[in-house]
Design brief:
Blueprint lengths: L2 H6 L7 E6 L9 H11 L11 E6 L7 H14 L3 E6 L9 H10 L4 H4 L2 E2 L5 E6 L5 E5 H4 L3 E7 L14 H8 L2 H9 L6 H15 L2 E9 L5 E7 L4 H14 L8 E10 L10 H4 L12 E10 L15 E3 H5 L3 H11 L9 E3 L2 H10 L11 E4 L7 E5 L3 H6 L3 E3 L16
Parallel strand pairs: 2-3, 2-7, 3-4, 7-8, 10-11, 10-14, 12-13
Antiparallel strand pairs: 1-15, 1-16, 5-6, 8-9, 14-15
Helix pairs in contact: 2-3, 7-9
Amino acid sequence: MSILHELLKDIPIPKMAKVRQTFNDTKIEDVPGAIRAELDKEKVAEFVKPGMEIALAVGSRGVDRLVDITKVTVDFLKELGATPFIVPSMGSHGGATALGQKAVLEHLGVTEGTVGAEIRSSMEVIKIDELENGLPVYIDKLASEADGIVVINRIKPHTAFRGPVESGIMKMISIGLGKQKGAEACHQMGFKHMADNIPKMARVALEKMPILFAVATVENPFDKVAEVAVMRPEDIEERETRLQKRAKELLPKLHFDQIDVLIIDEIGKNISGDGMDPNITGRYPTPYAHGGPDVSKMAVLDLRSESEGNANGVGTADFTTERLVNKMDRHGTYANGLTSTVVGPTHISTTLENDKQAYQAAIKTCNILDFTKATVVRITNTLELGEIEVSETLLEHVNKHPDLEQVSDVYELDFDENGNLF
């Protein structure tokens, strides 16, 4: 019997109950129709001429209705006589390779068959200028050679810095379209300066590149499209700033200020750039962002297959499992940290044999005298927060909170013969 088993075997795991969290669930049912209306309203057809080749910048995040959004944009351009093609725009994701980035899009459902446009993937970039501070500005070479560029992305708060513009269209222009070299350049001076560098780099690209328009979405707390916007180049910064505020208002959260132990079933780059959204967990990779609950100990149990082995974020947790580590592509994961310059999240956290030991280790180290009183919250991932599990010790709080509802009796967690959750 291992020393770890001896240390953990008597640590109690509390009974849990399912709890429903209530958020604003307003969403757009006809997303393609809403985008088409925006395309017409903004009169972007005036800038699209027959025969133009137009690059559509599409990223790697789990954006709601991404296939529909891309397809309606492709169809719109085709109707005007243009030839659209997809350019993977995801910085260093997909292992920072052309094939890897194409595979990421295919995992998200974006293929030539589903959206009606060819995917042209390359990591080759051109330098279009540099900022006053010396940072170079890059853009995907294939996109630079197109007659026009259209940028598609969701707008939401970033996980490592705060500013008027965070994660959205301007970040897609400066980092996504900049591929690995652009991402590396933008991160070179660290997240302390990101809120300044992203818009500056994007302004250069907007001035020098034939960006025709952008298609942006804002999602509700259940990660469903709540707003859409089509922006002309001259309006992007001002409108994105307003939509960023709206995205923060709609951000989902855990309705608990302090949690002894947070268990996350799965992480992945398709869930968040950090594997799990720090805005939800309260665990940030840098000191330049804040918010969320105060979590004493956190464990992550598994890695989503769509993440292609990129386990960025595992180091933000205190504990993980052998199952997750065995799925990890270390080169792809480390490339993420080398590009972003934030390497803590790519560290491998303390690794336990199975889910049960990860639970017990987190409880043992959460700094309370009576382990039976540990407050534990378990979530599937940081995208799915409508229904969560909480320990018996939190049910009094649940029953008093207007946005929480207990929807099951308490129960023992069910582990299989290998100590993993069913």
